[in-house]
């Protein structure tokens, strides 16, 4: 299989090199000039592919970043003796701080609002910086090309080489946790943070990389045209590149090439057949809408799905799991300090947690302790405060009062000492959770998801996580998550959580939406987690059967207060719990915050 893949790869490479070589040698200077423009436009489309295609943020200012790259390269070429390629790299780097600054609105804005902000930024930059003229324009001093790329043919080869190098680096990045975090943040920011990644850093890095790539495009444009004009970097050009990138799917190299070629050759063809060139942007906009109707991957994504169908998950009808090896158990269980006292330290304890959403008191002085290597159930009717408690522990909601202890150490304390760690830092400390809506990123393979979780760093980590996948009956790591059924995705979520060696695993209604049979299988897995992997589990579930089967201890909440705690049997028979689930005339109404004390 691998051999066949290698052979296909060689054939593709030889074909591509032959086509580029033939174009370079056979085309006239005029068509070569256009082909070079297309390669540069493809590079700028790749930059859109990073920030939109991968990270899902609508940024309409790629030409502003390209303009900074072009301006800086022109200035360096005019005023220093640095080699051309150094000018290009420094020019692209100059776009990075502006890219990061442009990423700041993306931390708060999304969709149309972000599009409007970035478009306005591109417009302002064009007026303030580019319309005043590029270096060398006033003196009519063009940027000097390097000797190795002095002719149109050689410059075309240089532009194509840059495109291939940048695309290769992006493909490599896609296989790391950073690349996976871009895709994950597009699917769910909360889930990305819960896996230990800062959403702020992930988004800003996507903007920085995108600005760098567009900056390389602008720098190459400076070498191609010699003297740049502000016309090339207007917001309208940004929108044309963006729509073409969306239509063709510029997250992939082939999509970026098609987008680059379309933005250059479609207007040219329209001119040759004596139609107005201005039709081209409208055509791209229609194509982009068409592509968005079929998903966000564009034409290239759709063709990839057709020609390279994702491997389907191997079926695990009976899910009989191999017993984990002692080495696996030792590796997964967090090393604890070996004193008698620390052996009794509960992995998670919350005291007096109080949360109010305006006048609604969601949690009112909740105390809960999850003992080492146990499953602790958290039950209660709708609105009892279960998810809020998990949100508080994982850092998504700040309580007004209370303390959280992780492995006996203070994680959060209000008042008097306020220690508040953001969700991604809590995840790195060993608090891992799932979400009610099941946010295991469908854009990633299991392997990428494990990387995102920090569970594929070393070869030992890889062996461990593969063994955990097998132990839970999950498919192989290369399987795309998008091809898995809901139940298997949940198991992948649990496996990923375990592979990151957490102190505490919090599962928020893992059986929601599962068929009875799937739910029973999942219950078996959860019940065995402490024994098989030595971890502690906090399980929020409405499925009473699952609670009875899985849990060592249960805490029941109602109206944000603990109404019962003990063994599953005692809690599930407790009259207060029965009343809370069945409702009744003696149910207290939810009291406003002002009345709590
Ligand atoms: N963001 C919010 N703003 C205002 N009120 C909220 C918010 N989130 C939750 N609440 C309220 O807090 C209370 C507790 O909600 P929570 O989602 O924690 O309950 P739950 O026990 O998890 O319910 P379910 O079983 O339906 O998921 C509810 O009254 C809910 O309406």
Descriptive report:
With 597 residues, the chain is an alpha/beta fold. It has 24 helices and ten strands. Strands 6-7-8-3-9-10 form a six-stranded mixed sheet, sandwiched between helices. A four-stranded antiparallel sheet has the order 2-1-4-5, covered by helices on one side. Helix 2 runs parallel beside helix 6, helix 7 crosses helix 9 and helix 20 runs parallel beside helix 21. It starts with a helix and ends in a 15-residue tail after the last helix. Bound molecules: adenosine-5'-triphosphate. Keywords: ATP-binding, Cell membrane, Membrane, Nucleotide-binding, Transmembrane, Transmembrane helix, Transport. It is found in: Cell membrane. Pfam families: ABC_tran (PF00005), BCA_ABC_TP_C (PF12399), BPD_transp_2 (PF02653). This is ABC transporter domain-containing protein. It is a multi-pass membrane protein.
Summarize, please.
This protein is of the alpha/beta class and 597 residues long.
Q: What coarse outline follows from CA principal-axis ratios? A: elongated
Helical residues, percent: 55-70%
Kindly report the oligomeric state of this protein: single chain
State the total count of DSSP E strands: 10
- Helix and strand content put the structural class at alpha/beta
Distance between the termini: 68 Å
Mean pLDDT over the residues: 85
| Spatial ordering of strands, largest sheet | 6-7-8-3-9-10
The total count of helices amounts to: 24
The unique ligands bound to this protein are: adenosine-5'-triphosphate
Q: Strand count, sense and closure of the main sheet? A: 6 strands, mixed
Q: What is the radius of gyration?
A: 28 Å
Low-confidence sequence ranges: 314-324, 333-342, 584-597
Tell me the fraction of residues in β-strands, as a range: 5-15%
């Amino acid at each position: 299989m691998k051999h066949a893949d290698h052979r296909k790869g060689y054939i593709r490479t030889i074909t591509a090199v032959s086509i580029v070589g033939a174009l370079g040698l056979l085309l006239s200077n005029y068509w070569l000039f256009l082909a070079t423009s297309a390669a540069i436009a493809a590079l700028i489309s790749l930059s859109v592919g990073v920030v939109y295609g991968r990270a899902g943020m609508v940024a309409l200012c790629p030409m502003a970043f390209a303009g900074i790259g072009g301006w800086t390269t022109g200035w360096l070429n005019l005023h220093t003796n640095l080699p051309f390629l150094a000018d290009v790299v420094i020019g692209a780097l100059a776009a990075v701080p502006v890219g990061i600054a442009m990423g700041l609105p993306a931390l708060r804005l999304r969709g149309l609002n972000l599009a409007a902000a970035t478009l306005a930024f591109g417009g302002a930059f064009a007026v303030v910086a580019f319309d005043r003229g590029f270096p060398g324009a006033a003196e009519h001093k063009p940027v000097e090309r390097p000797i190795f790329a002095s002719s149109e043919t050689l410059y075309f080869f240089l532009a194509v080489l840059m495109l291939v190098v940048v695309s290769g680096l992006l493909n490599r990045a896609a296989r790391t946790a950073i690349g996976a975090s871009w895709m994950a943040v597009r699917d769910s920011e909360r889930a990305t943070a819960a896996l230990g990644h800062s959403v702020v850093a992930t988004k800003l890095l996507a903007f920085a990389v995108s600005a760098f790539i567009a900056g390389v495009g602008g720098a190459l444009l400076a070498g191609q045209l010699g003297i740049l004009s502000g016309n090339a970097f207007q917001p309208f050009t940004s929108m044309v590149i963006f729509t073409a990138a969306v239509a063709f799917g510029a997250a992939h190299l082939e999509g970026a090439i098609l987008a680059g070629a379309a933005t250059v050759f479609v207007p040219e063809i329209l001119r040759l057949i004596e139609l107005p060139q201005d039709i081209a942007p409208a055509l791209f906009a229609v194509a982009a809408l068409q592509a968005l109707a079929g998903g966000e991957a564009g034409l290239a994504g759709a063709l990839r799905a057709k020609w390279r169908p994702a491997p389907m998950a191997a079926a695990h009808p009976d899910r009989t799991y191999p017993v984990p090896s002692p080495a696996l158990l030792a590796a997964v269980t967090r090393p604890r300090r070996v004193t008698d006292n620390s052996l009794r330290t509960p992995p998670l304890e919350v005291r007096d947690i109080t949360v109010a959403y305006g006048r609604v008191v969601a949690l009112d002085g909740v105390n809960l302790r999850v003992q080492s290597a146990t499953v602790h159930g958290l039950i209660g009717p709708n609105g009892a405060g279960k998810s809020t408690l998990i949100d508080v522990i994982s850092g998504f909601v700040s309580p007004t009062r209370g303390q959280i202890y992780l492995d006996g150490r203070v994680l959060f304390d209000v008042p008097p000492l306020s220690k508040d760690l953001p969700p991604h830092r809590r995840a790195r400390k060993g608090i891992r959770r799932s979400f009610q809506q099941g946010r295991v990123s469908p854009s990633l393979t299991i392997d990428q998801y494990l990387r995102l979780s920090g569970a594929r760093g070393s070869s030992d980590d890889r062996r461990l996580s593969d063994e955990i996948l097998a132990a839970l009956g999950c498919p192989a790591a290369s399987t795309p998550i998008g091809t898995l059924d809901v139940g298997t995705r949940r198991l992948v979520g649990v496996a990923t959580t375990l592979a990151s060696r957490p102190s505490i695993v919090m599962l928020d209604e893992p059986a929601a939406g599962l068929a009875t049979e799937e739910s029973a299988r999942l219950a078996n897995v959860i019940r065995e987690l402490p024994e098989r992997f030595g971890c502690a589990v906090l399980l929020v579930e409405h499925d009473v059967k699952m609670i009875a089967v899985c849990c060592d201890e249960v805490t029941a909440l109602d109206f944000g207060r603990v109404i019962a705690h003990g063994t599953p049997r005692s809690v599930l028979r407790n009259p207060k719990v029965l009343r809370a689930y069945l409702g009744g005339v003696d149910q207290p109404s939810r009291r406003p915050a002002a009345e709590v004390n």
